[in-house]
Structures are given as C-alpha cells and as structure tokens.
Amino acid sequence: MSQPSKTKLLAFTAIELAEGVQRAEAFYANMAARRSVREFSDRPVPRASIEAAIRTAGSAPSGANLQPWHFVAVGKDDASLRQRLRHAAEEEEREFYTKRATAEWLAALAPLGTDSEKPFLEIAPWLIAVFMQSHGVGADGSAIKHYYASESVGIATGFLIAALHQAGLAVLTHTPSPMGFLNELLGRPAHERAFVLLVVGYPAPNARVPDIARKALDMVASFR
Question: Is this prediction's pTM over 0.85?
C-alpha cells in the first residue's frame, strides 16, 4: 500500500499551560452566553460574516475527509422564497403540534414557549440550511460512499454555530420535521438530506429568551 501524502502541520503554536487554561475559560464564558433567539431584528448582516462562518464549518473533521455537507445561505433579497420557506415550515409544524407530537414531547417543549408560528423565517437577515450528503457524486456520476456522515455534519454544524456566535450573531436551530421541503425549495439533489435550518441575525431590541439553565459540569462529564 502506498504511503499517503502528508504536509507540515501549520498554524499550531505551543502556548504556556496557564494561557491555555485562560483561553479555554474565555471561550467557555463567550459560548455560555449564547442563547437560542426567536425574536430577530431585520438589521442587515454582511454576507462576509456568513461566508467566514461557513468556511469555519467546512474546516471541521469528517469521516475519511469526505466532507459530506452542503450549506445553502438564503438572504433577504428573495422575499418570495422566504415566504414559501416559512409557509412550508409552518405547515409541517402545525402537523407536529396538533398530530405527531406526543403529550410527553409537548410537555418537554412547554418551558421554551414554542409553537407553529415562525415569523423569524422572514424577519431574520439570513437562513442557513445545512444538508447532509448520504454519498458523494464522482465526475462520472458514480456514487462515492460517505462514512460517518451524520456525525461529521453534526460536528460541522457545531463549528458553524460557534463561528456565528463569535461574529456577534444570534442563532436559532430550527428543525421542522420532515424537512424535505428544503430540498425542493432550495434545489438540492435527492442524495442530500436537510440536517438543520439555522436562523441567523441580531436579536430584536427587546428580545426575551426562556429562563432555563444548563446542567452543571459534574452532571454531564466524568473524569477517570
């Protein structure tokens, strides 16, 4: 078996232990302030910020480095498309809240105050649809198997949310189910599946969020 081609590890500089702890704590403090927002301002967000965040997402590790993702960023220019996206999402959400969701599921959602109305899909300056590719497509049209696609896209989505937060933007993870309408409205092929729809922008001036808390470290981690 031939040896893989390798290159020098770039942009990795050793730092003092204390500085490493400080950086980790500072990043935690920044991210801990992140909240899912449902009340957005229509204040414009530069496309450059969205492009940089997507490039960050594309730097995530993936199974066999096959990068099984595609990101579709939808701005405010196409009001008709935004309206159709909202209509389709709300249709699925009404089905969920009135027919598909169990009583237990609805009880779990109750503290968040969510419902089937999604005005933010038209108000927020950007929507980013994240698609997972079940397989790749070669130059000759043949299928290229993807490995750990769900895990890879989940990691990339985490990178994306963190990058958007670092840019000073609020993000809502929106997952109407099913999300097949995103393929149709955004023109994505059948071998891609919508993973999540991110709503991105600045919070409305008087935006409010649910009064909830995150689990303490000793509840989510063990050290052996």
Answer: yes
